[in-house]
Amino acid sequence: MGSIVRTSKLAGKFPSSVRIKIIQPPSFAPARLLASVMELRWYGDLLYTLTLHRIKVRYKQSRLGVAWAVLQPLSLTLVYSVIFSVFTKIPGQSAHYALFVLSGMLPWTFFQNSLSSSALGLVTNASLITKVSFPREIVPLSYVFTAMFDFSVASLVLVGMMVFYRIHVGIAVLYLAPILGIEILAAFAFSFLLSAMQVRFRDIGIAMPLILQLWMFCSPVVYSLGNVPHRFRILYVLNPMVGIIENFRRVVIQGVGADLKMLLVSGTVSTILLPLAYLYFKHSEATMADVI
Question: How far apart are CA 18 and CA 32, in angstroms?
C-alpha cells in the first residue's frame, strides 16, 4: 500500500476530514518507510482491538485461561531441569538451575510465540486482508503484543521463584527496559520478514517449528554463554537473542549490570534488521491481497 496523501484536485471533491489512500505498485523506496510509520498512528485503535481479540480468542472457553501462558515456560523449565540436573549436568551449572532455566525460557518464549504466530498471521487472516484496507503490518504487530501479554503473566512465576530462593533485586534491574526494548525490536523485525515471506512461500509456516527449535539451542536458554567455546563466540553473539537472554539473566537473577558490549551487538543487529524487514514487508504489501 502506498502512503496517505491528499492532492489539490481531490481536496475539492471530498471533505477535509476524508483521508485519501493511493495504492502504488511495489517499491523498495526507503523514503516511503517514514510515511508508512506515520500512517500507523491513525490505526492505534485497530491494533488495540486486534490484540485484545487475539488474547480473548486464545483463552476463550478454556478452563485454565491465562494460566496457559504460565504452563508453557514452566513445563519446559521442569523438563530441562530434570534432564540437566538429575540425568546429567552441564559444566558450570547454577545451584538453582530451575531458576536459571526459567530466566532464559521467559524471554525466549516471548520471542518464539511472537514469531510462530505472526508468521502465519497474514495467511490466517486472509479474508481480512482481501476485504479491508489498512496497514497490513498491524496484523503481525498484534501477535507480538499478544506475546508480550503472555510474557507479563508468565513473569509472575519468575517473581515467585525469586522470592522462594531469596534472590534480591538490585538497581541492575533497571537494565530490563533496554533489554526488553531490544527484544521487541527483534520480534518486530523477524515478524515482518517471516509474515511477508509466508504469503508467497508457504514452506515458512511448515518450517517454523524446526527453525525455532534449532534457534533455541543456538541461544543460551538452558546453558550459559560460558559453555560456548571462545572460538565460536564471535559468530555466536551475532544471534540477537544471545545478548538479550544472557543479559536478562544477569540483571534479574545474578543482580549485576548488563554486559553492554554484548547488548550493543544485539541492539545493532536488531536495529539494522528492523528497517530492512519493514522495507521488504511494505514492498510485498501492495500485492498481498492478490497472492494470499
Answer: 21
pLDDT: which is higher, 254 or 28: 254
Q: Are 204 and 198 in contact (CB under 8 A)?
A: yes
Over residues 87-105, the pLDDT tens digits come to: 777 665 666 888 999 999 9
Which residue from 137, 126, 138, 118 is spatially nearest to 291, judged by alpha carbons?
A: 126
Instruction: Give me the amino acid identity at 106.
Output: L
Whole-number Å distance between alpha carbons of 246 and 179: 10
Q: pLDDT, tens digit, for every residue of 128-186? A: 888 888 888 999 999 999 999 999 999 999 998 888 888 888 888 899 999 999 999 99
Q: Where are the domains of the chain?
A: 29-291
Instruction: Please spell the DSSP secondary structure of 174-187, one letter per residue.
Output: GGHHHHHHHHHHHH
For 175-239, the DSSP string reads GHHHHHHHHHHHHHHHHHHHHHHHHH-THHHHHHHHHHHHHHHTTTSSS-GGGS-HHHHHHHTTS
| Residues 114, 6: Cα–Cα separation, whole Å | 35
| 109 in Cβ contact with 72 (< 8 Å) | yes
CB 77 within 8 A of CB 102: yes
Query: CB burial class (10 A; 0-12, 13-18, 19+) of residue 232?
Result: exposed
* C-alpha–C-alpha distance, residues 225 and 227, integer Å: 5
Cell numbers linked to 53: 481479540
